[in-house]
């Protein structure tokens, strides 16, 4: 009997404990359905990036403003050959680039049947001579003899005139040299008087000619400036013979405009490498200063007529007004406002 009571007591305790566990579980599950409070995370602290400054230290150096280009070898002595009167071309005896000797025939005019008329006139002259000497030997004097003399003189004058015409049809060169220009004429084409047909250049008298696309390129070049010349691997000295600043005024607009773009350069001691038409490199120093304050061009700033630089003063920037001097495409001389050792910020 006592054992049965004990069993019942244990069963009741077990039921109570199980019920308690179920209640607790239900309570816990109910709490999980309630909204959770979100925790707001603070953003991490970020250190500001240090400003990058492109600055250079001011130093003294040499600055040079110069001009470089390619010039053409030309002759300083060019002789144009032309006819004084208009005519029709019979034949050209030379080609462009030919070497010619003084007195050489270069062209002829078509004179029609002049050569035949010259031959006939020689016969007429001979006939007049025979008649004159016949009359004279026969003892004739006075007006009759004088008439024969006049006939003889007339025939001689006509022959001389024809010979002059015949010679004028021949165009010859007065100097030895090279044919540097030849008009594009063919046999039968008409020629105007005093219009150059051929030009002969003396290859022993050479200089260089530079032609600028823009007159501003050579605006700073002056007469007698030294020129460094390079022909192939060889170097030569030269000087400016004529620049736009000292070119003569001709009152011919075309020539005056052309002179604003031309440089004529003398070669001190040209050798055989200098040939007509070849090109040579030239270099002319326009301005040069040694041991002066020089900074990159990108360090110079301008604003509303003000010229200045930005300099570093510790961790701070400050603006300093400056006076520039020689200026190239990459560098600028600072005449006033900066001292060596200062740091200038570049405007890159």
**Largest sheet at a glance?**
6 strands, antiparallel, barrel
What share of the residues lie within helices?
Answer: 25-40%
The portion of residues forming beta strands comes to 35-45%
The whole-angstrom Rg is: 51 Å
* Individual helix count: 4
Overall 3D shape = rod-shaped
Count of DSSP strands: 21
Poorly predicted ranges: 1-5, 30-34
Strand order of the largest sheet: 2-11-14-13-12-15
State the end-to-end CA separation.
107 Å
In N-to-C order, the SSE pattern is HEEEEEEHHEEEEEEEHEEEEEEEE
Structural class: alpha+beta
Mean pLDDT: 88
InterPro entries: MdtA-like_C, UPF0194_transport
Protein name: Efflux RND transporter periplasmic adaptor subunit
Subcellular location: Cell envelope
Domain Multidrug resistance protein MdtA-like C-terminal permuted SH3: 291-346
Give an overview of the whole structure.
The chain has 348 residues and is α+β, with helices and mostly antiparallel strands. Helices cover 26% and strands 37% of the residues. It contains four helices and 21 strands. It has helices at 2-32, 114-137, 142-168, 253-259, and strands spanning 55-57, 59-75, 78-81, 87-92, 99-100, 105-109, 170-172, 177-182, 190-191, 198-201, 206-211, 226-231, 234-242, 262-267, 279-296, 301-303, 306-313, 316-321, 323-327, 331-336, 343-345. The chain has a six-stranded antiparallel β-barrel. Strands 3-10-8-5 form a four-stranded antiparallel sheet, with no helix packed on it. Helix 2 packs antiparallel against helix 3 (142-168). The longest helix is centred in the N-terminal third of the chain and has 31 residues, at 2-32. The N and C termini lie far apart (107 Å). Mean pLDDT is 88; it is low at 1-5 and 30-34.
């Amino acid at each position: 009997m006592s054992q049965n009571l004990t069993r019942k007591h244990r069963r009741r305790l077990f039921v109570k404990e199980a019920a308690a566990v179920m209640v607790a579980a239900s309570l816990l599950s109910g709490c999980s359905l309630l909204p959770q409070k979100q925790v707001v995370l603070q953003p991490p602290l970020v250190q500001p990036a240090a400003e990058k400054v492109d600055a250079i230290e001011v130093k003294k150096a040499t600055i040079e403003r110069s001009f470089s280009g390619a010039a053409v070898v030309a002759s300083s002595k060019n002789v144009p050959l032309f006819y004084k009167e208009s005519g029709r071309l019979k034949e050209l005896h030379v080609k462009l680039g030919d070497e010619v000797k003084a007195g050489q025939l270069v062209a002829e005019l078509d004179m029609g049947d002049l050569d035949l008329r010259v031959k006939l006139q020689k016969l007429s002259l001979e006939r007049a001579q025979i008649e004159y000497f016949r009359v004279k030997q026969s003892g004739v004097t006075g007006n009759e003899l004088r008439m024969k003399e006049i006939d003889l003189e007339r025939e001689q004058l006509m022959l001389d005139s024809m010979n002059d015409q015949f010679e004028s049809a021949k165009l010859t060169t007065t100097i030895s040299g090279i044919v540097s220009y030849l008009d594009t004429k063919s046999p039968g084409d008409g020629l105007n008087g005093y219009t150059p047909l051929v030009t002969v250049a003396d290859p022993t008298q050479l200089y260089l000619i530079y032609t600028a696309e823009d007159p501003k390129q050579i605006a700073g070049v002056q007469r007698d400036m030294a020129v460094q010349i390079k022909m192939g691997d060889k170097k030569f000295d030269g000087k400016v013979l004529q620049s736009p600043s000292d070119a003569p005024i001709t009152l011919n607009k075309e020539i005056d405009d052309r002179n604003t773009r031309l440089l004529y350069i003398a070669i001190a001691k040209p050798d055989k490498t200098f040939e007509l038409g070849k090109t040579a490199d030239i270099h002319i120093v326009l301005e040069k200063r040694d041991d002066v304050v020089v900074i990159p061009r990108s360090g110079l700033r301008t604003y509303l007529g003000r010229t200045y630089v930005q300099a570093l003063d510790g961790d701070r920037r400050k603006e300093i007004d400056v006076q520039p001097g020689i200026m190239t495409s990459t560098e600028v001389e600072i005449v006033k406002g900066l001292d060596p050792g200062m740091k200038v910020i570049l405007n890159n």
